[in-house]
Design a protein that fits this description.
Length: 308
C-alpha cells in the first residue's frame, strides 16, 4: 500500500525504563555511574596495554580492541539516555533512530565476532602451543580484527536496509530507551512477518552461532586441560574462565532478545540493560581481576604517573 509522505513518521518517542520521576532519577544515577566506569575502566586497559611492552601478546592486543569496542558500544546509547532522563526530552528523529540502530548492530556484532576470535586465540594457546606464535602473528591478528569489523558492518547494513524498506505512518512510541529492531519493527504499518524472520535469521542466528562456536571451543579447551595438566595450562584456563563470564553477559540476553519474533515483552527493555551497559562495565573488572600481568602493569603505570 502506498504511503502519503505527510503521514510518514518523522520522529519516535523513547518511553525509557519508567515514567516515575523517582525511578528516573535512580536510573540516571545508575547509567551515569555505569558509563563512567565503562569509560575509565576500558580506557585504563587500553593505556596499560599500549604502554607496557610486556603486554604485547595477541591476547592483550585483542583485549585492547575489545575495550575500544565496549567504549563505542556504550556510547551509542548511554549519552542519549542520560540526557532524556535528566531533561525529559524523549523524542528522537527518524534518521537518528535508524543511525542509532545501525551503529548499535555494527559495533555489537563486531564484539561478538571479536569474542569468537578471542576464544580461538585461547584454544590455540592451549591446544596448539607450538604453533601459537605462527598462527597468531601480529599481521594475522590485525586481519582477524578487520574481519570482525567487516562482518559487523555487513550484518548491520542488511538490518538497516530491511528496516528502511518498511513504512512507518502510525504509532511512534518505542517501549525502550534506545532504537533497536524488535521494538521499532513492531511500529511498521505493514505485514512484517517475512522481515521479522529475515532479521531473526540475521541477528538471532549470528548470536546463537557465535555462542555455539564459543561453547565448542571452551569444551575442547577443558578436554585438553584435563588430559594434560600443567601450570601454564591452568594459567591459560583461568584466562578462558574470564572469557566465559564475558560471553555469558553478552550472548545470553542477546539470544533472548533477537532469536524470537519481534514484540513488546515488558522484560525486553530491562534485559537489554545487561548487554548494553552491564557487559561493557563488567568486562574491565573480569579481565583485570583474573590477570596478574594486567594488574601488575597497572600498578607500574600508577607508580610511574605518581612520579610526575
Amino acid at each position: 500500500m502506498a504511503q502519503d509522505n505527510s503521514s510518514r513518521v518523522t520522529e519516535f518517542i523513547l518511553l525509557g525504563l519508567s515514567d516515575t520521576r523517582e525511578l528516573q532519577l535512580l536510573f540516571f544515577m545508575f547509567f551515569f555511574l555505569a558509563y563512567i566506569m565503562v569509560l575509565l575502566g576500558n580506557l585504563l586497559i587500553i593505556v596499560t596495554v599500549r604502554t607496557d611492552p610486556k603486554l604485547s601478546s595477541p591476547m592483550y592486543f585483542l583485549l585492547c580492541n575489545l575495550s575500544f569496542i565496549d567504549i563505542c558500544y556504550t556510547s551509542i546509547t548511554a549519552p542519549r539516555v542520560l540526557v532524556a532522563l535528566l531533561s525529559g526530552h524523549k523524542a528522537i528523529a527518524f534518521e537518528g533512530c535508524m543511525a542509532q540502530l545501525f551503529f548499535l548492530h555494527f559495533v555489537g556484532s563486531s564484539e561478538m565476532f571479536l569474542l569468537t576470535v578471542m576464544a580461538f586465540d585461547c584454544y590455540t594457546a592451549i591446544c596448539r602451543p607450538l604453533h601459537y606464535t605462527a598462527i597468531m602473528a601480529r599481521r594475522a591478528c590485525w586481519a582477524l580484527v578487520a574481519a570482525c569489523w567487516a562482518g559487523g558492518f555487513i550484518h548491520s547494513f542488511v538490518q538497516t536496509v530491511l528496516m528502511l524498506q518498511l513504512p512507518f505512518c502510525g504509532p511512534n512510541t518505542i517501549h525502550s530507551y534506545f532504537c533497536d529492531v524488535p521494538p521499532v519493527i513492531h511500529l511498521a504499518c505493514a505485514d512484517t512477518t517475512l522481515t521479522e524472520w529475515l532479521m531473526a535469521s540475521n541477528s538471532g542466528l549470528i548470536s546463537l552461532g557465535c555462542f555455539l562456536v564459543l561453547v565448542a571451543s571452551y569444551a575442547l579447551i577443558l578436554a585438553k586441560v584435563r588430559a594434560r595438566v600443567s601450570q601454564g595450562n591452568w594459567k591459560a584456563l583461568s584466562t578462558c574462565a574470564s572469557h566465559v563470564m564475558a560471553i555469558t553477559l553478552l550472548f545470553v540476553p542477546c539470544i533472548f532478545t533477537y532469536l524470537r519474533p519481534a514484540g513488546t515483552l515488558p522484560t525486553s527493555k530491562y534485559v537489554s540493560v545487561i548487554y548494553t551497559i552491564l557487559s561493557p562495565m563488567m568486562n574491565p573488572l573480569i579481565y583485570t581481576l583474573r590477570s596478574s600481568e594486567v594488574k601488575e602493569s597497572m600498578w607500574r603505570l600508577w607508580r610511574h604517573c605518581r612520579t610526575f
